[in-house]
Fold this protein.
Amino acid sequence: EAQVTQNPRYLITVTGKKLTVTCSQNMNHEYMSWYRQDPGLGLRQIYYSMNVEVTDKGDVPEGYKVSRKEKRNFPLILESPSPNQTSLYFCASSLGTGSYGYTFGSGTRLTVV
Amino acid sequence: AQTVTQSQPEMSVQEAETVTLSCTYDTSESDYYLFWYKQPPSRQMILVIRQEAYKQQNATENRFSVNFQKAAKSFSLKISDSQLGDAAMYFCAYKYNNNDMRFGAGTRLTVKP
């Protein structure tokens, strides 16, 4: 089944404790992206990747890191999480430009206390 | 920067009735793509319908249709014969050729039995 697998689904952590949210897709998509969803703000892009070893900042990159060492994986790293990073996170991938939509992972609900 | 505005934070509809969700966007481009995504309580992001800006004909997917007004930069979603399963958050999204997708803040739709 074609899908984007995101883990974990829920995560509660403490301020300053490094964490990684994993994302993997099995569709051979070149484009991958991370979003955070907050009430009243919709989805905002954190980072995106056009291909292996090619990443770039989105609209809200502060406090986040990403890497794209393999085509299928695009982990999101929070080196020192803070409470304002409490949010719902989505990984997404796309076949390419044009009318292709995004395929989304199932989301990670992160709470930083 | 392109922006997407959904002016209705919440909407409600009676089962079997028709409801229209509004979306406007701001862009200087002539070639782009528009999407509506549905997010039920499961959090999964589900593509409902897409529209290519170069097509004048409005897209239709079963009970879902759009009213695309390119000059007015408006892209509303019409849901006919509303069902209880249509209750969800709906996001309007804009995508340019660089694969970057921008989302509105969302409209929460309630369906009353």
